[in-house]
Specification:
191 residues; alpha/beta; 6-stranded mixed beta sheet; 6 strands; disordered N terminus
Amino acid sequence: MKRSAVLLSGFLGALLLAAGCTSIRASQDYKPGITFSEMKTYGWNPVKQKATGDVRIDNPLIDQRIRSAVDKVLTAKGYSLSTSRPDVLVAYTYTIRPKINGSSGGPVIGFGFGMGGRRSAVGISSGLGTDVEQVDEGQLVIDLSDGITGDLLWRGTSTSRVDTQATPEKTTTFFNSMVEKNLGQFPPEKK
């Protein structure tokens, strides 16, 4: 009996872990006809994200994490940070919004048996199981604009479920993953 309880708890733990893992969805849009491979330098747009009034977003530590992750990814792609006349200017917008997730668990059949004194009962139930939950979803939009004209050249969007109670280490890992998935699409001609 103990062995089956341990196996069951291990299975349930693995199931919960798998359910807790989220994927990051990403997409991109860009101006046709641009030769991105000729661009070698980037700089940060001096206009920062506007305050939203949401303490989960208006956090200087979040800003540092996103900027650090962008610097790391662009440097790894061969771009160098320039403070004078960069080829592209980087800006980002981060938002958190509630999302309703619903799933149908398929048919559910329940069976119960109970005894109380001289009486006993058997119950059977069936129906369709539906789970509904509200989650926070974060969306990171990274814009790359022409360093001279300011025209938008490329926009990457990444979206994922947010754990607003995460440790600083998990939060850093989250933003690193969001930025990597987002900028993993850039430059578009390497696809």
